[in-house]
Amino acid sequence: MASRKSGQRIEPSFGDDEDDGLRVDATDRVSGGGRVANRARSASKKRREPRGGRRRGGSGGGFFGLARRLFYWCIVLGIWGAIGVGGLVLYYGARMPSATTWTIPDRPPNVKILAVDGDIIANRGATGGEALALEEMSPYIPQAVIAIEDRRFYWHFGVDPLGLARAMLTNLTSGRMVQGGSTLTQQLAKNLFLSPERTLERKVQEVLLALWLEHKYTKDQILTMYLNRVFFGSNAYGVEAAARRYFNKSARDVNLGEAAMLAGLLKAPSRLSPARDPEAAEERAQVVLGAMREEGYITDAEIKTAMSQTPTRAKSFWSGAQYYVADMVMDQLPGMIGEIKQDLIVDTTIDLALEKKAEEVIAATLDEEGGKLNAAQAALVSIDGTGAIRALVGGRDYAESQFDRASKAKRQPGSAFKPFVYAAALEIGRTPMSVRNDAPVRIGNWTPENYDQKYRGEVTLADALANSLNTIAAQLVMEVGPQNVVKLAHRLGIDSEMQANASIALGTSEVSLVELTSAYAPFMNGGFKATPHVIRRISTADGTVLYENTYDNPPRVLDPAIVSEMNQMMVRVLTNGTGKRARLPDWEVAGKTGTTQSFRDALFVGYTSNLTTGVWFGNDDGKSMKKVTGGGLPAKAWHDFMVAAHRGLSPSPLFGTTGVQPVFDQGGAVAGALANGDGFVGGDAEAFPEPPPVDGALAVDQTRPAGEPAGSGPMPPAGVGEATGTTRRTTLFELLTGG
Question: In sequence order, what are the residues at sequence separation of 6 or more whose Cβ sits closer than 8 angstroms to the Cβ of residue 537?
């Protein structure tokens, strides 16, 4: 192309290549500079095009054009998706209460029940365990839970997009729901505020609440709330309840393998429970251990040790007699402090060592002899001189039956009631050496008979009580008056309503084993009332005392002289009478057997200077046992328990039994009244209603002498009662030897 001077027209210079194809026609416009604009642009465009006249990749812009279009539409869809999600959040968020009103609901209160030494008897409440601070728990527990449930817990803001994406991908590739994308914070929000239903609204609200929790609380606070409230199966909420439920230990003390098992329960608490499927629980625990190793919480050596541990096998329900005590405590709490609104600590009077021994003795006795003697159930209660319950067993197995036969069941005590009859007689002047005639006796149309249907003639009251003679007890009731016997029994501690009739002499009014045993305690402690109690103190978790018992200053209910005489008589029940199987080596023991009609109930209540213990054997349906008497299974079980309870203690005598000389009454008045047929001292015929017909120990004579009008009053045969004339003399040697 030739150059020209400035201002001159520049003519284009063209080569000879015809492919340029440049022509100027009438339609071409010439630029102001003389340049053919359209033609030059066309030529330039042609020069840029490859030979062949077509773009590489075809029409539409090729791969990069496709990528540009995909990116564009992704942005568009993302914007619209964000708008849609934002709209849903606004819509469902508007349906929730204002965030200013959101508060963490109170954890259901827990009642921690402690033995005298501070050991835990049980936790009661909706959660089943107390709340622990994070630093109080075994460090393996939070590590295991984070490793298997939310590995990025300390890094996300309440919602974990990466975890959610991973869960969605895993679920899509597996074709089923195998992972969840919820964080621990979301799970806590759901448990605290929301229902378990799976709806879009609930999920949105869960996310909003999780964000609020993360804003308001620290990560450690959130984790603590979660671990203290999450459900672990078997009515256990929180790690403390679960650890005690499955391992019978505090969450403070669980080892690595146990922590892994607890964390594994969170996926399916019921299905993976060690109580239901120990093998499945163990397999899941090993998965948790693998996750902990991946996160660097534990080493290969630690995981090897944990995996070699034997799978934990838990029973299907809480097992142990101490839970009868826990039930008793929970029954009494509302009456002492009202509604339970906060965590409480209840200090009890229970000695766990005695409690476990009592449970063992009852179970062993029933296992050895219960089957062949048709005795299916038993109960035991042991109290000290203040009325504090040291041990209580309400039945053979709490896991099988939670009914407390020691405190809630009321049964006839049989001859175990006779000490109250004799004590009432002593209060009106009778003595252990008073003599009565063991012979047939009729009160109205009731003719009580002795157990062996034999009569011994003249006997002292001490001998009569030792051999549990029904005829003598019946005579004493009529001398004293049934209403006075009832008053004395109530005074000593029996709370149940009793019928003031003649048959009360043989224990026909029903009482509980706890109240019967506590009514014996005044004989042990020198005549003071021993109100049965199991709660010593109730306090809040911060130590504020809400209740403390006041049984340290009991009233006197028996004269010491009466106590001394009763103890002398009841010692002979074990040395010479029906309770020989209950005798203890080196210890002075007193007590009384009791057997009800047709062998439906058998009891032994006895005491040393240390403890008063009552034992009952029978059947819940009232079926008869095979000739089981109070001197049989109950006395044997009583003996075995008391031997263990007194092991290591120095023997001491009973109150008023040492250096006491026998006392004789002067007789005369009562004997004359009986001999002349003037009726019994203590009331008329209407005061002693006839007992209902019974079988076995209470034989009833339905006939009356000819010509005698109905309701003419009690008519004992001549000669029944205290011997007339001189009083029988008994030497000290005979008294000591039972002669």
Answer: 346, 347, 545, 547, 548, 549
> Is residue 473 classed as helix, strand or coil in its secondary structure?
helix
Backbone angles phi, psi at 22, to 5 degrees: -95, 125
Which pLDDT does position 181 carry in this prediction?
A: 66
pLDDT tens for 428-442 read 999 999 999 999 999
Q: How far apart are CA 251 and CA 248, in angstroms?
A: 10
Cα separation values, 289 from 223, 231, 250, 405, Å: 20, 20, 21, 45
Which whole-number Å values give the CA distances from 91 to 85, 129, 204, 206, 289, in the listed order? 10, 39, 10, 14, 42
* Predicted structure pTM score: 0.73
Amino acid 432: pLDDT: 94
Phi and psi, residue 213, nearest 5°: -60, -45
Q: What is the CA radius of gyration of the chain?
A: 45
- State yes or no: is 496 an active-site residue: no
E strands along 290-445, which residues? 344-348, 377-383, 389-393, 410-411, 435-438
Residue of 182, 382, 407, 415 with catalytic role: 415
For the beta carbon of residue 537, count every other beta carbon within 10 angstroms.
Answer: 14
* Structure tokens belonging to residue 33: 């500079």
| Type of residue found at 590 | A
Q: List the strands of the sheet with 389-393, edge to edge.
A: 389-393, 377-383, 612-618, 601-607, 590-595
Q: Which residue has the tokens 């069941």?
A: 409
Q: Considering the candidates 130, 149, 206, 565, report the single residue annotated as catalytic.
A: 149
Cα–Cα distance list, 561 to 211, 374, 427, 564 (Å): 77, 42, 10, 5
Indicate if 138 belongs to the active site: no
For residue 365, report the phi and psi dihedrals to the nearest 5 degrees: -65, -40
What tokens does 251 get?
């969450």
Residue 555, phi then psi, degrees to nearest 5: -80, 155
